[in-house]
């Protein structure tokens, strides 16, 4: 049994008869339950309410367009009149809803709430983009919409919806950037792209911390798998062309040739190797049973109060472990110039630049979305997936607040350590 939600006018209620929104909702729910009407699903209360709200809004639009209310004699001879309605089904957040769209005799009425040829309300598009950003394939999204909302949406339609983000992505990728950033983190993740045959391809990511302590993803770039440092030179040059005149510190995972690329673009930028990556790479050369001992022996090196003290501790490490693991000693010697810069700063700066953990959390979200897809047909599909994952990083804004609080003290330390380079005149 269905419940008809009437649109008849009731006498104006006085203060004593006023009904709150909560009371009205409770009345509708009680009435629906009493008549055996489902609240959700096909033909349920939510679908009927959505239908009524949409049709009421469309009636308001046609009234504004023709200039008179329905059945108002003032419309006679007005030059344009109502001309019945046509029925169309639109996909909404509560499932498919059939609505009557009014027409005018002149054919000039352009409805806005449900536009001509529109078959989905914007909430559905947002839902598809959200599910896609979480890593669901087009087939899985179609199955989800069919199961939950009883809506048949083809994979091609879903692809069309997600393709819309490419315009926004192009604008985002080319937007002007801040003049100076205290810290920029760079990293790359590998994705599988089918270009003739499936192969790993790097997606490069640059993330900055602004002078206000906010996270700013500067861009994403697809590489061809060639020399990383050469590609980063291209990326950093692009960032400079988009307005980045200065970067105080750039944190990376120790890519060979990167310091020279950074110096070419920003001569005053300090390049810092991620200590966590350095430790992980050290363990690759050691037997598993020695990992804890190696970690304990290296800790005095990267926690030393000064570079001289770190050098002394490293010489002690080399003497104790160099014969058994010469590759570890060589690894640290090769990375020493990019390892020691953070030792010149106080603890507030040290703890935020000694690793790429800040960007690793972003990469984890990207990998989750990428892993669900398996591999991509082309480079654009991979970039689209990564972009949507980035745009859904902080839907509530809570992460932004945590970032601001976390970086408040380090940024004060940066202001002192890099006096003059973070002043308002440089922004």
Automatic annotation (TrEMBL):
This is Mutator family transposase. PANTHER family: MUTATOR FAMILY TRANSPOSASE, TRANSPOSASE FOR INSERTION SEQUENCE ELEMENT IS1081. GO terms for biological process: DNA transposition. NCBIfam families: transpos_IS256. Residues 65-88 are annotated as: Disordered. PROSITE patterns: TRANSPOSASE_MUTATOR (PS01007). Residues 65-74 have a biased composition (Basic and acidic residues). Keywords: DNA recombination, DNA-binding, Transposable element, Transposition. Pfam families: Transposase_mut (PF00872). One of its GO terms (molecular function) is DNA binding. Belongs to the transposase mutator family. Required for the transposition of the insertion element. The keyword DNA-binding applies.
């Amino acid at each position: 049994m269905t419940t008809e939600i009437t649109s008849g006018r009731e006498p104006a209620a006085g203060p004593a008869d006023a009904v709150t929104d909560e009371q009205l909702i409770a009345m509708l729910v009680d009435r629906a339950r009493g008549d055996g009407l489902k609240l959700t699903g096909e033909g349920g209360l939510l679908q009927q309410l959505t239908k009524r709200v949409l049709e009421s809004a469309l009636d308001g639009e046609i009234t504004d367009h023709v200039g008179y209310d329905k059945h108002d004699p003032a419309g006679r001879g007005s030059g344009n009149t109502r001309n019945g309605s046509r029925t169309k089904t639109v996909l909404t957040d509560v499932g498919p809803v059939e609505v009557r769209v009014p027409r005018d005799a002149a054919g000039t009425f352009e409805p806005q709430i449900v536009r001509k040829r529109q078959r989905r309300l914007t909430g559905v598009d947002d839902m598809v983009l959200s599910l896609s950003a979480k890593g669901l394939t087009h087939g899985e999204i179609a199955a989800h919409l069919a199961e939950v909302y009883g809506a048949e949406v083809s994979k091609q339609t879903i692809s069309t919806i997600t393709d819309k983000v490419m315009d926004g992505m192009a604008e985002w990728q080319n937007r002007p950037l801040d003049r100076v950033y205290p810290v920029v983190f760079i990293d790359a993740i590998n994705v599988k792209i089918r270009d003739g045959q499936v192969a790993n391809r790097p997606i490069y990511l640059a993330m900055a911390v602004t002078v206000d302590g906010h996270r700013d993803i500067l861009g994403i770039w697809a590489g061809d798998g060639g020399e990383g440092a050469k590609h980063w030179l291209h990326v950093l040059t692009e960032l400079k062309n988009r307005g980045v005149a200065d970067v105080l510190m750039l944190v990376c995972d120790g890519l060979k040739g990167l310091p020279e690329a950074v110096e070419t673009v920003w001569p005053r930028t300090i390049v810092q190797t991620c200590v966590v990556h350095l430790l992980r790479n050290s363990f690759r050369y050691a037997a598993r049973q020695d990992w804890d001992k190696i970690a304990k022996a290296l800790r005095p090196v990267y926690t030393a109060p000064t570079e001289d003290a770190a050098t002394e501790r490293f010489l002690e490490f080399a003497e104790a472990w160099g014969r058994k693991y010469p590759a570890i000693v060589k690894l640290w010697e090769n990375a020493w110039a990019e390892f020691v810069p953070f030792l010149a700063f106080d603890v507030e700066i040290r703890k935020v630049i000694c690793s790429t953990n800040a960007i690793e959390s972003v990469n984890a979200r990207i990998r989750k979305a990428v892993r669900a897809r398996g591999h991509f047909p082309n480079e654009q599909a991979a970039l689209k997936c990564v972009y949507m994952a980035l745009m859904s990083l902080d839907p509530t804004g809570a992460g932004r607040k945590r970032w601001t609080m976390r970086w408040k003290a380090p940024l004060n330390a940066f202001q002192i350590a890099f006096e003059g380079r973070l002043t308002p005149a440089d922004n």
